[in-house]
Design brief:
alpha/beta, Rossmann fold, 6 helices
Length: about 130
């Protein structure tokens, strides 16, 4: 079974985005659901999702994000451990990726994901398939 790691931006697009952003995300997610893939994500995704609604004191959106993650992903959120941190350090050093991107991709790779679904077209890796909407 294929495993797709959900990065933060596609989830935000799904709930908050204009149709030109949300429609491609919804289309890809629907295709993957039809293929019976396993979805996963990390605690970093949860943190990034909650920043804006917490800042705005938008409890409804906070609840929507938590619910989407809980109801969409097929396993518990991945946490950052030493192996992921060390792998992320290599990506950060070699590719100059931002810390969250390095950690997210490392979470996906270390946990055996097949696809990393993001909006960041700058991310390229031989270690995992990167898909953008």
């Amino acid at each position: 079974m294929k495993t797709v790691f959900l990065d933060t931006a596609p989830i935000i697009y799904l709930l908050e985005g204009a149709p030109e952003f949300s429609d491609p995300v919804l289309h890809l997610l629907s295709d993957w659901i039809d293929m019976d893939v396993c979805f996963c994500s990390s605690v970093i995704t949860l943190m990034e999702l909650l920043v804006h609604p917490v800042r705005e004191k938008n409890h409804v959106l906070q609840k929507q994000y938590r619910s989407l993650l809980i109801n969409t992903i097929s396993r518990p959120l991945f946490v950052i451990d030493e192996k992921i941190a060390e792998t992320a350090a290599v990506y950060r050093a070699e590719k100059s990726w931002r810390v969250p991107d390095s950690l997210q991709i490392s979470c996906a790779i270390i946990n055996g994901c097949d696809v990393f679904f993001t909006n960041d077209r700058r991310l390229k890796s031989r270690d995992i398939e990167i898909v953008t909407p």
